[in-house]
Amino acid sequence: MRIEQVPTPAYVIDEAKLVNNLEILKSVQDRTGCKVLLAQKAFSMYTTYPLISQYLSGTTASGLYEARLGREEFGGEVHVFAPAFKDADLEEILEIADHIVFNSERQLRKHMDKCRAAGVSIGLRINPECSTQDEQALYDPCATGSRFGVRIDQFSEDLLDLVDGLHFHTLCEQNSDDLKTTLDAVEAKFGSYLHKVKWLNMGGGHHVTREDYNLDLLISSIQHMQEKYGLEVYIEPGEAIALNAGYLVTEVLDIVENGIETLVLDASATCHMPDVLEMPYRPPLRHGFEAGEKEFTYRLSSNTCLTGDIIGDYSFEKPVEIGDKLYFEDMAIYSFVKNNTFNGIGLPSLVLMDQTGDCRIIKSFGYEDFKGRLS
Q1: Domain total for the chain?
Q2: pLDDT tens over the chain, length 375 residues
Q3: Is 239 annotated as a binding residue?
Q4: DSSP, res 86
Q5: In a domain, 238, yes or no
Q6: Would you give the end-to-end CA distance of the chain in angstroms?
Q7: Which residues bind substrate (predicted)?
Q8: What SS3 class is residue 222?
Q9: Are 228 and 116 contained in the same domain?
Q10: Under a CB-based contact definition with an 8 Å cutoff, are residues 287 and 314 in contact?
């Protein structure tokens, strides 16, 4: 079927755009020898893992379940980071992971012997205390009071005897100039220790596949760390892998007139695109414009009972009618990995669109998926 024929609501992953992103990321690996890993927290449609694994070196996980998924479906290296590990989870993770990164000295010392016995490479997350984001502290791992990473005033040289590498993650949807600023801070604070470890993981948040991304600066930054310190370098983007490579297709169920015309959709911000409310984030809409820019302006909302379940106000060149389909763009990342069934609203189907434009439904969801997570 074509995308216009897909039952709604549905997330549609665009294979051609996914491949374009992967080719850019592979070029980073090829030019530097670094390893690029898929951060599954942003995109984990494992039907595409055989494709992605042709380009990237492995996966990163935020816990046991993502680690298992990466090992079972992707292959390659499996890296795991969590603020803290449950003992029972760690026992299973040790059978899966190649790298485990600990968030604190206490966690490191508690688990290091088990990791060594399992032959797993051990890392420690550092906090360079270098905020480069304009967003609020909610998204800044370097904000005052952040629970992430060991600061330089907490770091002692004897920790180097316990670890193979260091890890930092400070970026969110940012360009390589912010990476360069962060690396300057890492070198200023931790540079004397970098010669004494084997690898450096620069985390995620690198918007490598964005049109205005400075790829050459990323390349030179990686090469600098490799050449000066003899490090193996990892980056673990999530968004960059599937950026602009997916859509959320929805149908207009009704139009409510109450001061502004509101389109009631079968897709929901709170259920199906939670970043709209959390970040907040305004998703691009095919043939949609800013409110008031075109003749016909509507508020796009959903079929839940939450008054604030509003995606945003958009304008159109022609009137929208009940039964029309709308196509939200950039809906591959942080969408189906975060969705929920609030109000008993069904989960959108997962659809893969091949490079010829043909779509096939990978998975549909129903009542049992809603009921199965309740008791």
Answers
A1: 2
A2: 999 999 999 999 999 999 999 999 999 999 999 999 999 999 999 999 999 999 999 999 999 999 999 999 999 999 999 999 999 999 999 999 999 999 999 999 999 999 999 999 999 999 999 999 876 567 899 999 999 999 999 999 999 999 999 999 999 999 999 999 999 999 999 999 999 999 999 999 999 999 999 999 999 999 999 999 999 999 999 999 999 999 999 999 999 999 999 999 999 999 999 999 988 899 999 999 999 999 999 999 999 999 999 999 999 999 999 999 999 999 999 999 999 999 999 999 999 999 999 999 999 999 999 999 999
A3: yes
A4: -
A5: yes
A6: 37
A7: 239, 275
A8: helix
A9: yes
A10: no
> Can you say how many angstroms the Cα of residue 278 is from the centroid of all Cα atoms in its chain?
14
Residue 21 domain-assigned? no
Residues 74 and 176 in one domain: yes
173 shares its domain with 265: no
Q: Which two tokens stand for residue 195?
A: 């010669």
pTM over 0.90: yes
Domain span at 47? 33-242
> Any idea which residue has 């695109």 for tokens?
273
The rounded distance, in Å, linking the Cα atoms of 244 and 265 is 22
Q: Quote the tokens at residue 119.
A: 């032959």
The dihedral sign for the CA sequence 193, 199, 202, 203: negative
Query: Do the domain assignments include residue 17?
Result: no
